[in-house]
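Lecture notes, unit on protein representations.

Consider one protein chain, 474 amino acids long.
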Amino acid sequence: MKELEYPFDNGFIMKKKRSLKRQLLGDGAVRLKKRVAVLGGSTTDDIVSVLELFLLDMGFECEFYRSEYGQFWQDAVFSNEELDRFKPDIVYIHTSLRNLSFSPTPRSGEEEIEQGLNAELDRLSQAWDGVKEHFGCPVIQNNFELPFFRLMGNMDASDRRGKVNFVTRLNSALYDRIAQRPEVYLNDINWLSAAYGLEKWSEPKYWYLYKYALNIEAIPELAFQVANIIKAIFGKNKKALALDLDNTLWGGIVGDDGVENLEIGKETAEAMAYFEFQQYVKAHKDLGVLLTVCSKNEEENALAGLSHPEGVLRPDDFVAIKANWLPKDKNIVDTAEELNILSEAFVFVDDNPAEREIVRGQHGCLCQDPGNSEGKAGRPWRHAGSYGHRRSAGVCGTGYPCRRIRGKRRKRVYRRSAAGAGHQHPGYVRGNAGDPSRHCGPGGVGSRPPPLHRPYRADPAHVFRHQDQRPKAL
């Protein structure tokens, strides 16, 4: 389904998830039946709903078990009658920073911090052991996103008492443990939250109101990544790339402009975009992805373009080169027969939207726009997760309460008192910013301000989120 291909519209998916599900279930496709247990440390209802959409689109019709709120560890370690009857084929443990039982403070000692870190790791290991003992199925485990504020500023990353330092070391130790457990697969929400925008991802109002550990609008990003891991575990990854050439692997038309005039290399911004895209494509060859050419071109010109001295890819990197004037959907079928794989196993990359629609309509394979003309080489691919090994499966100011949003400042508005005095939050100053007497509340100068009209915005962490605070020496 085109609406579920990356890059997708998160808001559209969240709004239309029921109608999208009806369309997917009504398409008559034959899908693999799987049972997925989602054990959550937070609310997971919408996560499961959107995850189901992506899995349906990838060829899986799944039943879901959802743990009670915050019961991920109990269900994994001790199980229960309902979960035992469900017999999951795969378990997804959806945890986040909110589920850590230990957090260092500026007064924490070295030994206390190490004990806390090991306790968190042991807790997750116990959950994996419980799943292995009860069900013997694969486990998908989140790592931890960074905190959305830094108590000690930049020192939070370097000082062992900082939470950023603690989470970074916890994630590193988690990776080492997962590497020793072939049945456990990492879901990297640390990277995903950074790519989405950590402050947006961690928007606290969704936790205060609904106990979601992430921004609801980010749920499709999370669900898409988890679905790609499940797809990889059950062997549904794509196997081959079918690449156009002109304005896809290089800028320009090789037959008209000549090899010497193609945009590829490091001389111009456009040439660098194509150069990096070729690097990205060649890296997939190292993963075992088959590279093929599917271009309307003379073969002689295609080979000359692939031999460009500033290019990354060479003719020998491709297992098949179809450079002719036949329809591209037919070329993909012919290449699939030669390689003994299905045409659905291809990802077709072409700058021409008409060609992409024809191939999508004929074969239903994933079709992507490289986006090179805008200098966005590889951008649609960063979250794609169409290929890869099963283990990788991928792929403001300091003032409060102001926050920078799209370069503008958003200000909270407070009600006026009966006497007409303006109410303001401490830290938001009228007049001389250095004069503390200008902080006003309902009782006059220096008094406490009224509560915010949206309590979940009264986020004390935001006051110092971007400031450097050095802890006192212990």
